[in-house]
Amino acid sequence: MARAPRVTAGRSRRWSGRGPGRGDAISQCEATSGAGGRSMTDKELLELLKGLLSSQFEEVVFLLGIPPAYLSVREPQAVRAIEVIRYATDNGLRDELEDLVQPARRGDATTAVESYRARKSEAFVRWDLRNAGPAPTTDSRPTQTRLDDMYIPLRFAPRFDPFKVSPLARSIVAEDLLQPPPLASHELDSARRAGRDHALREAHALPRRWVVIGVAGSGKTTWMRSTFRRLIEKAGVLPVFLEARAIAATWRSSLGAEQPFDHYLAGALAECNIARPGAILGTLLADSSLKVVVLIDGWDELGDAQGDRLRERLLEFSGAYPGVAIVVSSRPYGATYPARAEMFRAQYIQPLSDDDIRMLAQRFQRHAHGLAQPREYEARAEEFMVALALAPNARSLASTALLLTMMLLLWHQAPLPGRGHRLYHACLRNMLIYRVTRLSEEKRDRQWRPDDDEELFRVVAELAYRLQTKDGKPFHRTLLICPWDEAVQLLKTEWPQRENFLRWLIASAGVLVDRADGSVQFSHLSFQEHLVAHHLFTTCEGDQRITMMLEHMADRSWWETLRQWAALIGDQRPEKLTPVFDKLRTKPDGYWLAGQIFADGTGRASDFAAWCAELASRLCDPSDASDDCAVAWGSCKQSDRLAILRDTLAAACTSLHWLDGSRHAHWCKLANLNVPRAAKFRAVEPPINTPQAVARSRVLFGGAASWPDGDELAVLRIWPSTRVAIGIRLQSAISLGAGPADLLPMLPTLLVRANRLWSGKDHALLEGSVGRWIKGSDGTLIRQQVGEFGMSFVQDFVRDTVRYLFGYFAVPLHEEVLESEQAMMDRVVQEFGRLFVRTVVREFAERFERDFIRDFTLYYIRGVVRDYPREFADEFPRYFSREFARDFGQYFALHFTRELEQALQRSRSEVVVPSWLPALAFLEASSVVGRATPRVALAHGSFPKEMFLLGLFKLACQASFEPGSNFLDESIQRSCAAFPGHPLWPALARHMARRSEPVERALLENLARHPENCAPPLSWGLQYYVRGDLLFDDDSIVTLDELCDRCNVPPPPLLEDLPPELHIPLDHVIMRRDLMRAT
């Protein structure tokens, strides 16, 4: 609705003559007002402004809809139009100027939208098969299939696992893009904890910004096109489809490089023959009743510099128009695409399920091959599903839409190859050889290919090999990018038409893809790796095979290539691989590479038997490579080899302790092997319904902050006492094979370490080391985690984790090294920080909500006890870096062994280092996060109101981190007074909150000393978790006090005060971030 005009015919004013001084109409205004400043009515001035509009109408209309700050920075090419607007604004006529242009603006915009929708209604009609292979034919002519007929709904989730569909997966349809992205649950929890109802309301007004991420061939472009077609059908919606590479192409000129993002949207309107597209766009963006959706496809095709520039322009645009929905698609390696920090929510395309594959197969048979009757195309699709099941590796390939389409094309002509490398070979030959006819028919002057098909395949394979090895560095198993000129030189051939050959590989064969920055890459990683394997297969003979294998084996990104190379040899002469396997078994990681090759069905039975004989012992030394090997066996279809594996591992389980048993169970689960679990591992599994089960459950404390299930037992883990720490470690040693005699020399050493966990002795040292590490780092990780979880969580997590690390790992071992204590602590925190940043934080951030905070709530809502040790077996290595556990496990074992030797020398004539000590050292180093953070998990968890105990200790733990909070003081008082359960809990809550009275501490100490005064399972928890009683394999019990008496050391106290909280100086890191943003 136009505003009521403020202009009156009789009103006049004396004008100051201020104006830009450019342009005929502006000069006329200044001349008319004159140096003497004669009077002039508003009406006369508006007539003159109309003269300005006659020459600058489009720019003025467009620029009136842009915020002033954005206008001045991003529109240097419209200087005169800006002057018109400023002149009217300075002289009080901006409203009148907008009234003049409103009628034309509204009418033109309505007509433009109708014209745009009419023209774009037929966009992306055809289903594009160019990258998959030759289109099916009908009556010797290629079948034209419609996208709407062939498209199957894809599913998305916040995470991606190539081997399974996420349980959180859902389809994202056009309507979803018109709604704000959902907040993560920890963001909602944070807002609720702070009582910020307004934050929750604001969450529903978040910008609608998405990043759709998928591997090559997963269907990103198809989804974007189908979504565009659905959006264009909706009234009140204006979708605009842009290709990132097309945008980048306009930057080759200096004028194009200066254009704002609005320019590309206006260009989409101009393509539909819409007059004054810039002015129309400004009107549309300002219209709150119209929902504009911008779809940008192929971000990964940009280089880093181009990606940074486009992201900058896009963020400027989204900041000026927050109501516009924006969707970006990229492969995972498009590192410059907008991230969560810019309010973009990432959604990963999930692998296709069996139902998805069946649906696409039916539609392919119906629309591509013309089977009109349901019984015909459904039967044909079922035949394909059977063929897919019979081909061992085909099903995993069919999880990607492009490869599934290739297989459908191949299967129509011949049976599916039963091995993955054969399938890749068939697909590549289909793409390369098929293009011969196509090229000759279309007579492409700028493309060329050799007539010899085998020579063609050899040259493309050599190109892939030279590309994958050109820098001599690990390629991190991703598609490698090469500048055009380098790619031409990599061909290393005497062909005079090398550039034309590259163009043919791109435009006709589809094996290569040209990127917007002028570089090229292979269209699919599997094609690149298979071609490299084919090159090695044809060029390496004899001892060269072993040399080549040893050269590339250390780089695990080469393993898939080496697996395919071995498969190519195994198809013809498997005996040639025997020397290779013999060499691989002598290398730690090489052993697991050999296992993956055997899982592919490659190699002779005798070679596999030799490998299998070592498997059980190798599993006791975990590594990431062993997990990769297990995953390969998980998709294996070699039933005879799987049976041998099952028998071998089942026989080994009878003699394993629980930790090795957990590793075996973890590997068997990844490998989909149904093997009984080790007896000692089953002993620590739920249900925890006996005192013996409670005693043994302590060994799993390192797995998660909330283990075990059951609120009473879980809350007892935060009991502040050295006894708790001592009991955990001694019970862990017993579980690994230590006997009563072994515990005596251990106890004094453990007491020295555990006492410091609750003391304030190291307070200054801790703060100094942490402060130096934070200040010395660039702050990227800290800023990322603060943005992800909030400042208070990051501070609390660092406080408890660092205190645990220092108290247990950085204790000085001998008097002569006291002066180097600070250096030792610095080393611990630096090493921890380096490895934690590099290997843990990404996984921890992704798994935090499921595996950390939500543990407490999720189990109790269900009212059942989760089988946590089974999860522990799967997740145990992930909670802390294997590398940290290995490095500091060795450090711990070295010094602890020295202390143990000294103690043994005083009591024995012969020193024997226990066989269980290395396993204990690894367990201790691996358990840092799970053991250190129960207080953090409770303080930052989110619990239903009916969980009174958890709610009480949530407040208590928050108060322990903020001892001066009056609000928490009052909350604790109310909660303790209203708590309906055992009096132990209010007393412990007040003690954890640093507010306990002597009578409450006396109650807690008395119950810890006499747990039998409580009912089970609380009495069991007090006996084993708090008092620290120890349970041996024969179910005999020794109290910690008895053990201390035998060692002549005073027993640790039953209850201790919490040490002062560490000051974690994160503020300057956040201030540095804000300063960087401001500048």
Short overview:
The protein is mainly alpha-helical and 1079 residues long. It folds into six domains: 12-105, no CATH class; 151-349, 3-Layer(aba) Sandwich (Rossmann fold); 354-419, no CATH class; 420-539, no CATH class; 546-552 and 561-654; 691-1047, no CATH class.
Folded structure, characterized:
- With 1079 residues, this protein is mainly alpha-helical.
- It folds into six domains: 12-105, no CATH class; 151-349, Rossmann fold, CATH 3.40.50; 354-419, no CATH class; 420-539, no CATH class; 546-552 and 561-654; 691-1047, no CATH class.
- Helices cover 59% and strands 5% of the residues.
- The protein is built from 53 helices and 16 strands.
- It has a seven-stranded mixed sheet, with helices on both faces. Strands 12-14-13 form a three-stranded antiparallel sheet.
- Helix 39 (780-789) crosses helix 40 (791-809) and helix 49 (984-992) packs across helix 50 (998-1009).
- The protein is globular.
- Mean pLDDT is 75; it is low at 1-40, 66-77, 183-206, 439-443, 811-821, 831-889 and 1071-1079.
Topology:
Blueprint: E1 12-14, H1 24-33, E2 39-41, H2 42-63, H3 68-74, H4 79-90, H5 94-120, E3 137-138, E4 141-142, H6 147-150, E5 155-157, E6 170-171, H7 185-193, H8 197-203, E7 209-213, H9 220-232, E8 237-243, H10 244-249, H11 254-257, H12 262-270, H13 277-286, E9 291-297, H14 304-320, E10 325-330, E11 345-349, H15 354-368, H16 374-390, H17 394-397, H18 401-411, H19 420-442, H20 453-469, E12 482-483, H21 484-490, H22 498-509, E13 512-514, E14 519-522, H23 525-539, H24 543-553, H25 559-572, H26 578-584, H27 588-599, H28 605-613, H29 615-618, H30 624-634, H31 639-652, H32 658-670, H33 679-682, H34 691-696, H35 711-716, H36 722-735, H37 740-755, H38 763-776, H39 780-789, H40 791-809, H41 821-862, H42 868-875, H43 882-907, H44 917-926, H45 928-932, H46 934-940, H47 948-961, H48 966-978, H49 984-992, H50 998-1009, H51 1018-1026, E15 1030-1031, E16 1037-1038, H52 1040-1047, H53 1067-1078
Parallel strand pairs: 7-10, 7-11, 8-9, 9-10
Antiparallel strand pairs: 1-2, 3-4, 5-6, 5-11, 12-14, 13-14, 15-16
Helix pairs in contact: 1-2, 2-4, 2-5, 2-13, 5-13, 12-13, 15-16, 15-18, 19-22, 19-23, 20-23, 23-25, 24-26, 27-30, 30-32, 32-42, 36-37, 37-52, 38-41, 39-40, 43-44, 46-47, 47-48, 47-49, 48-49, 49-50
